[in-house]
Amino acid sequence: MKQEPTSIASTRIAFIGGGNMASAIIGGLIQQGLDGSRIAVVEPLAEQRERLESRYGVTTLEAAGPELQGFDLVVWAVKPQIIKQVATDCAQHLAGALHLSVAAGIRSDSLAAWLGSERIVRAMPNTPALVGQGMTGLYARTAVVAADRGLIEAVIGTTGQYLWVEREADLDAVTALSGSGPAYVFYFLEAMRQAGTEMGLSAETATRLAIGTFAGAARLAQDASEPPEVLRERVTSKGGTTYAALCSLEDSGVKASFVKALHAASQRAKELGDEFGA
Ligand SMILES: NC(=O)C1=CN([C@@H]2O[C@H](COP(=O)(O)OP(=O)(O)OC[C@H]3O[C@@H](n4cnc5c(N)ncnc54)[C@H](O)[C@@H]3O)[C@@H](O)[C@H]2O)C=CC1
Ligand SMILES: O=C(O)[C@@H]1CCC=N1
């Protein structure tokens, strides 16, 4: 039987950590009509708390306390290096909640041990969530029921696309591809801007050309039925300009280096889980 989409309108959501990733998800929720009064954010930095309150109308707390009792969903958005301490300190106030952690590398076994709960979902979002264009990988422990999955999909769906992975270890690869991915795109944009200015364009013109090209190529790849290599070949005339550029990239081992870089990111995700897990 097909399940009805979950409504988030009556959900109360607590965020532990109110930085970049929390702000991106809160922004999505507010844009989709969730009332800010249904969101509480635990955030030690006063400046950050003021920003969240004025921008989104959410309630903020300097530290977790009994006020968090009865929230339906708790989103863990602190750095992996401190999540153990924070989770251990807060667990007593969060009984009965569904937990969603965005912390890179931190495995659900660790979270379950610290929180004394099995209702745990891990998410690996990315910063385009800020503009509703996020790409998130999700993993649920076996104790997470369909209704809980529905709630997570409704929440993360406010920030863009998502997909579920069956094996938790795959989240390390998701982290390397899409979690860290926006940084690679910005890195290429920087390189294209540098080349453009070296060739005499203004930085503004070069940046506009580069961003427009990324957006257009991504859209083309999304809509096309052919794989990226076919789309690439269509740009590449024999003996032409693209061919010259691609030969230079191959000579410099750029693709191999890029693949290696993503392996490094995935390996680091695994290490974060080993270093800062239970
Ligand atoms: N930034 C990104 O692109 C992505 C980040 N993540 C994950 O999201 C998590 C948060 O990362 P960001 O938002 O980028 O970091 P951030 O540094 O912007 O946010 C973390 C927030 O936690 C707050 N904090 C520190 N101690 C706290 C405590 N005891 N209780 C509550 N809050 C506390 C900090 O003041 C800060 O505002 C990390 O675990 C990271 O792995 C996941 C996907 C993408
Ligand atoms: O760099 C990091 O560790 C986090 C996880 C994915 C993106 N940023």
TrEMBL record:
Q: Where does NADP(+) bind?
A: 16-21, 77-80
Instruction: State the organism's lineage.
Output: Bacteria, Pseudomonadati, Pseudomonadota, Betaproteobacteria, Burkholderiales
Which InterPro entries does the UniProt entry name for this protein? 6-PGluconate_DH-like_C_sf, NAD(P)-bd_dom_sf, P5C_Rdtase_cat_N, P5CR-like_CS, P5CR_dimer, Pyrroline-COOH_reductase
Q: Tell me the compartments it is located in.
A: Cytoplasm
Which ranges of the sequence are coiled-coil? none
Q: What is its EC number?
A: 1.5.1.2
HAMAP family hit by this protein? P5C_reductase
One of its GO biological process terms is: L-proline biosynthetic process
Main location, first listed in the record: cytoplasm
NCBIfam families attached to this UniProt entry: proC (TIGR00112)
Statement: the UniProt record of this protein carries the keyword Amino-acid biosynthesis: yes
Pfam families (alphabetical): F420_oxidored, P5CR_dimer
Q: Where is the Pyrroline-5-carboxylate reductase dimerisation domain?
A: 168-272
* Pathway listed: Amino-acid biosynthesis; L-proline biosynthesis; L-proline from L-glutamate 5-semialdehyde: step 1/1
- Which reaction does this chain catalyze? L-proline + NADP(+) = (S)-1-pyrroline-5-carboxylate + NADPH + 2 H(+); L-proline + NAD(+) = (S)-1-pyrroline-5-carboxylate + NADH + 2 H(+)
Top-rank taxon: Bacteria
List keywords of the entry alphabetically: Amino-acid biosynthesis, Cytoplasm, NADP, Oxidoreductase, Proline biosynthesis
Q: Does the keyword Repressor apply?
A: no
Q: What is this protein called?
A: Pyrroline-5-carboxylate reductase
